[in-house]
Design brief:
six-stranded mixed β-sheet, Sulfite Oxidase, Chain A, domain 2, alpha+beta
């Protein structure tokens, strides 16, 4: 199998790893577990293909042709992406320096895809009509079966040994029990805001509300904040439900905006499920965790939980009228 078919299989495995990895960031409920499983199986398929790719790599090294350095770099980056993925699954390493293992895994994965695209452009492995044959379909089936078996083996070993990864959430995130231990995280280029709870105002349908007003309502919900950085925490959040604040407002969606310009859009019908929180676990929200007021969006990943809320409006645009992942 060492040759063009191996290169094509690796190309498609890399593409699928990118697609399933990106989709995994959107999963908030256990119904989407299959996306995370698919990502793991596709990644392990790359490992299964490694022996055949090694044969190809040896040929290329002996030829000492152009692109040799890129090939070596791609190999190293791919291995590091796989290693960080295994570390994430087993829970053996939480972070390296200021970066979590999840952040490193994502960065290495994106770099792998970028180098793969360049490598493919330099050494294209053209598709042929004969690739859609019964023999190749059986090869793909065998590859996925082997990768699936390897995934089950790894998962079984993690649980059998009682490794920290055995307690991870279905998204792959590891639990933080104490709210005081929750790290300060931001999406892309946001920075921690330092707002005065006594003077900060939240514009809701054009009317200003104080943080004190939101805290006095006393609505409390238990919800899980699952960060794409690789951790989650389940806490009691206190504040005011959005439906109380929006009243009889008409429209299709509600837009929640941060003082940084960050925003997310939700179906108006889900307003009773959303909370403007001022407290977590009985304490005021800290600046780095979105204080003095942040959105709590149960069953959604952390990037939906808008921090440092500044304004909330309702309009007639559909809730899907936004990037699936925030761009800034």
């Amino acid at each position: 199998m060492a040759g063009r078919h191996t290169n094509l299989a690796l190309l498609w495995a890399t593409i699928l790893a990118l697609v399933t990895g990106g989709a995994a960031f959107t999963v908030g409920t256990s119904g989407g577990r299959w996306v995370i499983v698919a990502h793991g199986v596709v990644a392990l398929a790359i490992i299964v293909l490694a022996p055949w790719k090694t044969v190809i790599a040896r040929r290329g090294i002996r030829r000492r042709g152009p692109g040799r350095g890129l090939s070596v770099g791609l190999t190293v980056v791919t291995l590091l992406a796989l290693v960080t993925g295994v570390a994430l699954v087993t829970g053996s390493v939480n972070s390296i320096g200021p970066f979590t293992i999840m952040q490193l895994h994502v960065a290495l994965g994106l770099l792998t895809v970028s180098l793969t695209v360049i490598h493919t452009l330099q050494r294209p492995a053209a598709h042929r009509a004969t690739d859609l044959s019964k023999r190749n379909a059986l090869r793909v089936g065998a590859l996925l079966t082997a990768a699936g078996g390897l995934w089950l083996t790894v998962e079984s070993l993690v649980h059998f040994t009682g490794a920290r990864g055995s307690e991870r959430r279905f998204t792959g995130s590891h639990e933080i029990v104490d709210a005081e231990d929750v790290p300060f995280t931001q999406w892309i280029n946001d920075t921690v805001q330092h707002l005065d709870p006594e003077t900060h105002r939240i514009s809701i349908l054009g009317t200003d509300h104080s943080v004190v007003e939101l805290a006095m309502t006393g609505d409390v919900i238990e919800a899980t904040l699952d960060c794409t950085g690789g951790w989650y925490t389940t806490q009691e959040w206190a504040g005011t439900r959005l439906d109380r604040l929006l009243g009889s407002a008409q429209g299709q969606s509600v837009v929640v905006r941060s003082v940084t310009g960050y925003w997310r859009r939700f179906p108006l019908a889900q307003a009773p499920l959303l909370l403007l929180a001022t407290h977590v676990a009985g304490s005021l929200l800290r600046d780095g965790n979105g204080g003095p007021v942040r959105l709590v969006a149960p069953d959604r990943r952390g990037y939906w939980w808008v921090k440092w809320v500044a304004a909330i409006d309702v309009d007639d645009r559909p809730s899907w009228w936004q990037p699936p992942l925030p761009t800034a």
